[in-house]
Predict the 3D structure of the following.
Amino acid sequence: MKNKRILISGAGIAGLTLAYWLKQAGFTPALIEKYPALRTEGYKLDIRGTALDVIQKMGVYPSVFESRTRIRESIFVDQKGRQITQTDPDLCGARVEGDLEIVRGDLCEILFDRIGNTECLFGDSIVNLLDQEDGVRVDFKNNPSRMFDLVVKADGLHSKVRLLSFGDESQFLRKLGLYVSFYSIPNFMNLDCTEIEFHRPRQFAIAYCPQKGDAKAGFAFSSNPPADLDLRDPVQQKQFLQNAFRDAGWEIPRILSFMKESPDFYFDCMAQVQMPRWTKGRIALVGDAGYAVSPVAGQGTSVALIGAYVLADELKKAQGDYIAAFERYEMRLKEYVRKNQELAKMSTALMEGDGASWLTSLSLFLGRHLPTSLIRLFKKWGQRQTAKAARAIAL
């Protein structure tokens, strides 16, 4: 088989899944990850639709099912902390029967265990790529340079490795006007497999505790950022978040007080990656690096799982003929990615602009009096749209 040696940049969900399927197909994958060890922190995420078929085929479905968050109830509160309504967490998360919710770190550990003795270069990064006729020369920050037949970039939304082959992210990043943050907090509200949501115009906050581990807090909001905001500076990120929710009410002030010392604070803009091609020469992109759908779509994990599976499947079918495999990979995924990126538009519209402000306020007012006829109406609509997009591709 041609082109067997494949370097995968990024040991996240997409990278680990790709490594597994490449090994099953007879290739020799190697992973490189800038962090010194597997990252096991993170927010809760969903696996739905065709992505469930991928984890079934990998043999990890029982482990994922056992490690699911087991959230039993979703409670909506207003600014004074009064309960507006209570609903099914699956409805709240736009999940249908069979869909699973799991903490990111738990899923990564399950996938990492599945790849066995695959070579993993932790604590290193790629500094240069030279795509040649007989392979790709890879220069590492710490390890000696090596030749690989193919290189796949699975290193996330702000892929630094993508920059080396495809250009600056400003060409591909489509910001949605929203920001997202999450981090671990003490379980001071004694949440037991429960999540509490708080909504107000242009803002959303959530606190939850899964079946194991610390409680988590999450924020999503629309706001005009300071002109000098540096999204890479945690100090500025925290101040921006603090200012946005300064007078939000409920338990927000106390939740914000924990972010300064939280070991896993995360903050970023919500954005999609839209590119004309996900491959170039002997180099390919998979997951968020090539086609991020954004957290607001709720499909990032599923798209990453499926993208990795399809790429490995096409390389297997083409017996390592990467030109034919890359062409088929892009063709098979294009419409699926488009439909899942479309999911983000409605949620984004509800949180942006003056129209969103009155609509959200009206929703909360009516929701206090007619919770089953309004909140459920919005949630069920989202559930139907997400289910369609989640099954928009077949393996």
